[in-house]
Design a protein that fits this description.
With about 120 residues, this protein is α/β, with parallel strands linked by helices. It has a domain at about 30-115. It has three helices and five strands, in the order βαβαβαββ. The chain has helices at about 20-35, 45-50, 65-80, and strands at about 10-15, 35-45, 60, 90-95, 110-115. It has a five-stranded parallel β-sheet with strand order 3-2-1-4-5, sandwiched between helices. The longest helix is centred in the middle third of the chain and has 18 residues, at about 65-80. It starts with 8 loop residues before the first strand and ends in a 9-residue tail after the last strand.
């Protein structure tokens, strides 16, 4: 898998909570990378090993709310150091369907966008 260019825009991605769902997210993640995003993935404890071959940085999701806020703050500081425009654009993508993925994410500073659901056929 190719690595993003030095000008790539950092994008924090909160992965889904289940192995199969993360695997099904791979085409979307690959597409984001080809569109110029430097992916910064956050997921369950098994995610770094599952995605090791991709070359993407994968951080294990912190255990509690306060630690998760600190984790996002560190991701945000890192991304701002690479991309001065990080705060002025959508800079986080939320894949999970579980409620636990949402609380605290906006408190860390990122501007999240949730995964869009496809429109029903014929619309």
């Amino acid at each position: 898998m190719s690595h993003p260019s030095p000008q790539a825009k950092p994008l924090i991605v909160r992965l889904r909570n289940w192995v199969g769902d993360v695997v099904l997210s791979l085409p979307a993640l690959q597409h984001l990378q080809t569109q110029g995003y430097a992916l910064r993935l956050i997921g369950k404890r098994w995610a770094p090993e599952l995605l090791r071959a991709t070359g993407w940085p994968v951080e294990v999701l912190a255990d509690n709310g306060h630690a998760r806020q600190e984790q996002l703050q560190q991701q945000r500081l890192y991304a701002r150091g690479i991309d001065p425009g990080f705060e002025r654009r959508v800079n986080m993508l939320l894949f999970p369907y579980s409620f636990s993925a949402g609380p605290g994410l906006s408190q860390g500073g990122p501007q999240p966008a949730a995964q869009a659901q496809p429109a029903p056929a014929g619309q």
